[in-house]
């Protein structure tokens, strides 16, 4: 599989998450305050909650329901109640296009 365009870079709001779906895989795409784009699994590992509805702070995305924060770089939870990581995907920026291949996990 090849990377799929999920949105335009210009459509992303800084320090906010956007939910996209590629081949049935829900992904939260985040433009952080440093201008870097991240893609992590959109479902909190503590509960079936969309992380894209959560809060971005620095390099973390916090689940709005129970407060678990996940590293945008590693997918690892930084606090309880979540203890399992979410997947992190490689992001390719091509001009204004944001591309993600959900079959390729980002090397950490």
UniProtKB/TrEMBL annotation:
- Stored Pfam families: Rieske
Q: Which InterPro entries match?
A: Rieske_2Fe-2S, Rieske_2Fe-2S_sf
Q: Which PROSITE patterns match?
A: RIESKE
Q: Please give the CDD domains that the UniProt record associates with this protein.
A: Rieske_RO_ferredoxin (cd03528)
Q: Is Iron given among the entry's keywords?
A: yes
Question: Would you say which domain of life the source belongs to?
Answer: Bacteria
Keyword list (alphabetical) reads: 2Fe-2S, Dioxygenase, Iron, Iron-sulfur, Metal-binding, Oxidoreductase
| Matches recorded under Gene3D superfamilies | Rieske [2Fe-2S] iron-sulphur domain
- Which GO terms fall under molecular function for this chain's record? 2 iron, 2 sulfur cluster binding; dioxygenase activity; metal ion binding; monooxygenase activity; oxidoreductase activity, acting on paired donors, with incorporation or reduction of molecular oxygen
- Keyword Iron-sulfur attributed: yes
Which residue numbers delimit the Rieske domain? Answer: 4-100
**PANTHER family the UniProt entry points to:** 3-PHENYLPROPIONATE_CINNAMIC ACID DIOXYGENASE FERREDOXIN SUBUNIT (PTHR21496:SF23), FERREDOXIN-RELATED (PTHR21496)
Protein name as it appears in the record: 3-phenylpropionate/trans-cinnamate dioxygenase ferredoxin subunit
Species for this entry: Microbacterium endophyticum
């Amino acid at each position: 599989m090849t990377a799929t365009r999920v949105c335009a870079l210009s459509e992303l709001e800084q320090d906010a998450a956007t939910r996209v779906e590629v081949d049935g895989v829900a992904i939260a795409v985040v433009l952080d305050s440093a201008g870097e784009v991240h893609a992590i699994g959109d479902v909190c590992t503590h509960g079936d909650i969309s992380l894209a509805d959560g809060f971005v702070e620095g390099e973390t995305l916090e689940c709005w329901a129970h407060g678990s924060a996940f590293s945008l770089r590693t997918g690892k939870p930084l606090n309880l109640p979540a203890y399992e990581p979410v997947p992190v995907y490689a992001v390719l920026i091509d001009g204004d296009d944001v591309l993600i291949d959900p079959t390729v996990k980002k090397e950490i």
